[in-house]
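name: query_chain
kind: protein
chains: 1
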Amino acid sequence: MSPSKNLRRRFMGSLFVGMLLCSAPALASTNSGPIKITPDGMEIWNVNPDHNTVSVTGTQGVNENTLITEINVLRDPWTLDIHPSNGQVWVTSKRDDAIVVIDGPSRAVIDTITGVGFGTFGICFSPDGLLAAVTASGSDEVFLVDVATRNVTDTFSVDRRPHGIAWYTDNTRFYVSHLLFEETTSSAPMTKFSSSGGWSEETVIRIDQDANIFDHGGYPSGMMSIIIQPAPADTVLVIPCTYINTLDGGLVGGSIEFDEITQSGIRPVDLINDQSGFPEAQATIVLTADHTPVSGTTAIDFKSGKMYIANLSSGDITIMSGNVYAATEDSVMRCGEGPLGVVAHPTLDRVYIFNWLSREISVINSLVDTMVAMVPNTTFEPLSTNLLNGKQMFFGSRDSLSTQNRHSCHSCHVFGTSDSRAWDFTTLGSHKRSTPDIRHLNVTGPQNWTASMDENQDHEFGIMDLQFGNGLIVGAPNPKLGPTNAGLSQDLDDLALFMSSLLHRPDTPYQAAGGGLTANAQLGKAIFEDPTVGCVNCHAPPFFTDSNLSNNPYILHDVGTADTVSAIWDTTGMAGYDTPTLIGVWDSSPYMHNGQFPMIRDIFEFGNTTDLHGVTSGLSTTDLDNLQEYVLSIGAPLGAPTDVINPTTTPMATSDVKLAHAGANPFAAETSLRFFIDEGPARVQIELFNLAGRRVRTLLNHTMTRGNHTIGWDSRDEQGRAVADGIYFARLVVNGEKRSTAKMTVLR
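structure:
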């Protein structure tokens, strides 16, 4: 092992004797998370994001290790907290932007708190129970709610994607972590709030990159749950996270290696001096330092002088003991699929693990660190067998998915989105590439910035090249743009099915209150649709892209960012890039293929001086602001599916192998069609005809997987001309057999 690796394990001496892990059973500080234990220690409550429920499990007596009940709440519940004295349980809803208030003893939903931002995520009561801190990950806001009145008392705008919350013992301060941050930021933010002279955002603590992780830079990412150590060591906040290394790849550093892309670990922050570690070289505990096969660290709790650390992707728990700055690994214990939270019992020798994707609670005896029970914690399964398996594949890193269980799809596409980083893929035959948001992947045509893939199953190459796995297909896969890879592996088909279920919301935090465009966005829309500016020529609604699987070769554009070097390094050998969809683009910065612009307007103000990316050089500062506001307001087309499949989203039945309207009809400019394929892979064609029976346009001609699909039509013909008002027919053909026809009316 190199000297730099040994630095992470070195004991730091008497300076930290007072920070040794404490065996005191109770935690005075509080933190947000997906699983909590009641103050009396009798019950465990956890969220079920896929089910839109919370579950209650007993810990003692007749209900020991037994699911007691499951309670319906709003959509996408990701965290909850249990009040220290009044018996209430508050649950966030990320999809419905609200807090559900439950009376714990009666299990009754007694209130819903709104006005807590867009994408409400984290919630945590202050230790005295007077306030609740709430994070809104979409609108980048933090709220304080008065528990007695349930009114918002303070609102703060913060750095990007606030998630985890930890309150300090004395109720005078709390800390917020941030899940993602842009490539242009050299460190990850941690925000401190203080009540000195009234509540305020006191400071932003920068968690700098650690240059001593395997001798390569590592940026902390995916900072979700955070926790303060138990007293007397409660001057240290601990962040479970994944370190991502974007420095290697050929341009600056060496080639991409399997043990250098990502690392799982914990990062301590000194709360006295508000800094991360001291010194920086010894501030990180890397769980993978000795090639321990774990990945996706998300949560931690303390018990009996030990740390229990959940690893989401590898599906296990790392148990460590000793000083948090130089802890040693005791063991790694397999638990279930997707462990997302950990909670230690205040009096019993028990630690409970919430296994999100295997729908169970692991119960560990903390005296001997053995698994004593696996408790099912749901009463129904909302996902199909294939979809659930695909979801487990996406978040998983075991077996054929990676080397040493280190990497998963989730590692870069954090919770099915993006890590907001640009990676150097030079040694893989490409160049610097910003991680794309993969929501609505199936409706935007070819995939990757250079249209080098034409189906989700082609991400088999990502498993092999970026995750260093053996792949899911037995034998060699077909080329990316060759014969289909669908049907060659059930696991891969299931992974593709899950990827196709990742969708954006129809609303965005930049829209007007109640939905729709603001006045400035309306002005920006007029600029966007102005033919002399030209935005709409490539970003055509309803999916705001001209990327189309029916075009061969696929459409690539040089908007002033392609050069000779990029063309040589791109696997297509072509200068130009596929047009990304603008659906949900508000949530996918930094922008462009290399992540060079942090804001939409930067693309036009600094990156389009030659007017290759629309004619924008004549736009005023106000015009650019309005154009940006409109683009940031673009959500999923109204009427189209806009949720990951869950109990409130019912797929079309197998018997309904037909076209169905997913958008407006009649319509003036754009609509969309939804269809279900009951066999896969299948060659699917969708053609449009006018009343005279003349073919107007081929919308789709491609091999598709089994499942639900959506495709849009912008009321234009094959040549890009707007069609005349009237009635048109869409015909669905599957494997050469006509299956269904849908009538559409264009009425301007």
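note: Confidence is low (pLDDT under 50) at residues 1-27, 567-572, 640-656.
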